[in-house]
Amino acid sequence: MTEVHIEVNNLTMAYDDFVIQQGLNFKIHKGDIFIVMGGNGCGKSTLLRHLLGLKVPATGDIYYQDINLWKITEAERKVIMRSNGVMYQSGALWSSLTLAENIALPLKEYTDLSDHEINGLAYLKLALVGLVGFEEYYPAEISGGMKKRAGLARALALDPEILFFDEPSAGLDPLSAKLLDDLILRIQESLGTTIVVVTHDLPSLFAIGTDGIFLDTISKTMIAQGAPNELLKHCSQPVVQQFLSRGMNE
Amino acid sequence: MNKCCFEILLTETDSCVAYLQGDWVIANQVPTFLEVTQKIKQVECTQLDLNGESLGLWDSRFVVFLIELEKHCQTEQIKLNMSGLPSAAQGLLKQASAFPVRESGNKLKSNQSLMTRIGEKALVIYDDTEKVLNFVGEVSFSLMRLFRGKACFRRQDLWLIMQECGPGALAIVTLISLLVGLILAFVGAMQLKIFGAQIYVANLVGLGMAREMGAMMTAIIMAGRTGAAFASQLGSMQVNEEIDALATLGISPIDFLVLPRMLALIVMLPLLCLYADLMGILGGLLVSISLLDVSVVEYLIQTKSALDLNDFLTGLIKSSVFGVLVALSGCLHGMQCGRSSSSVGDAATSAVVSGIISIVVADASLTVIYQIIDF
Question: Is A185 in the same domain as A218?
């Protein structure tokens, strides 16, 4: 078994008194493409915010390798958070910066590379997602699909060890969604990045997922764990079967 | 971290092997591109094989280096063989050139002559004026619909906006107008003391607040407070396509959004202005009784004799006009907001700027008109 990258131990997520999910226990291994599945409102995005260190768990712990994310100082946590790349649902590009500047910002902040090298890196990241020639465009001037890809380019800026995706294929046409999946696979293959994807897009999660969990809205906990393909074949939970087959296997 | 180096060995007469060593990562020191090209120049080869056997860690900095090397070799007509590199790096390199390059054609750098730029600016001003007039026209139609009882907006919206821009602004209006009254009294007292006519501070403050400063100060406060709020509310609705949603339902966005805001300001601004007048007079009173040996009763009687209802009326008329102007400039810039989040900020800024400008200009014109008609 490969090394464990993130471990979640008995996590309960809650907004004040309202519990969203409880008793979450899972491990994300290095190099996995880990899918967080579940219906609308089951707490997928909230889980992502917990894993990213943006929200404090109500109870339970989150470990990055052997480090407990909430038992360390703010500064140490920032270092860990910096090694995460995130692609937000609608890109979350800074609207007053051009695409190249969006990617250059974290590089300028955290490395002492020369401007020339930073430009080279920004060019590379945009080239990886197929946006060469759009360096000088502002986010408002490009289409939704391009914004997503630019968001991925920015997530890649600091060569993250873990990449998080929040609904990567939402709002994309099937072909663009497939291209983005291919891109995720290619990046995982070449950089060995651990990838965590929150999605309910079936074709995409079957195509890329090597492991995953299923969050249930009613029982407020995870009811299945494993690669999506395996879950479809072997999982006995009717909710999971319905979800993965779009309600066909009833 | 292992030191990086780029060493070239001449194997045959025209073919070389370049050995790449060390950790080629962002956090490490790597050979500059200039050093590398000089080394390549020295050996004068036509084929360069890259060998990455002793390469340690690498990240995208390494890939950027390879891209540059590839370009350099292409221009120098050197055959570059990368098969000796980690396959993942080759994969990334392939991915980077997998998509066709799109030239950013419509991104021309503006390098026009002064005259062209002046001309273009003038055209923009012309366009903007047309937009403003259009907007004013639309609002007038909407007002006409209101009088015929056909304007469609929610009553509770109107009440909410009224509450927000009326009572919600009381605290700041109190503070500012009290201080303005105080300042007027101080300035006047210095001069009037010379003649022993301190009691006329009451006239100065009363007239000054009622005819000018009350209306002007509340209007400027409202331009900064409510005008900006209107612009950013409508602007973010524009960004969220909420205004399009109204229009597709056949509901006029002007009726639904602009009209209640304008009505609220037309009603609330005179009320606030009246309140500001009284606060200003109170400020003057404070100065007079504490510094000028004028009693409270004396000051109030003097104020009463100095002011008649017309003086208040002039201020109130002004403030209604200012209300229209603040609402118009706030809503206009909100409705014309672009589609990105940064344009909401621009809309709020220009709403406040144009609001204040129009208030001052209108104030000057109205004062002149009052003089002419002896009001």
Answer: yes
What DSSP designation does B97 have? T
Q: Given pLDDT bands bounded at 50, 70 and 90, which one contains residue B221?
A: very high
Q: Which of A138, A160, A182 is the last residue of a domain?
A: A160
Nearest-by-Cβ selection for B104 from A117, A123, A134: A134
pTM over 0.80: no
- Convert the pLDDT of each residue in A51-86 to its tens digit: 888 888 888 889 988 888 888 888 888 888 888 888
Give the distance, in angstroms, between the CA of residue A71 and the centroid of all CA atoms in the same chain. Answer: 23
Q: What angle do CA A220, A225, A228 make, to 5 degrees?
A: 115
3-state secondary structure of A147: helix
Does some domain include residue A150?
yes
Mutate to test the interface with B, among A95, A98, A187 (most CBs of B within 10 A): A95
B21 - beta bridge partners? B5
The conformation of residue B3, written as its DSSP 8-state character, comes to P
**Do A155 and A168 belong together in one domain?**
no
Domain span at A121: 84-160
Residue A79 included in any domain: no
Q: Are residues A52 and A170 in the same domain?
A: yes
Contact residues, chain B, for A186 at CB < 8 Å: 91-92, 95
Phi and psi for A203 in degrees, rounded to 5?
A: -55, -40
Q: Are residues A205 and A240 in the same domain?
A: yes
Could you tell me if the ipTM is greater than 0.95? no
What gap in Å lies between CA A43 and CA B326, rounded to an integer?
44
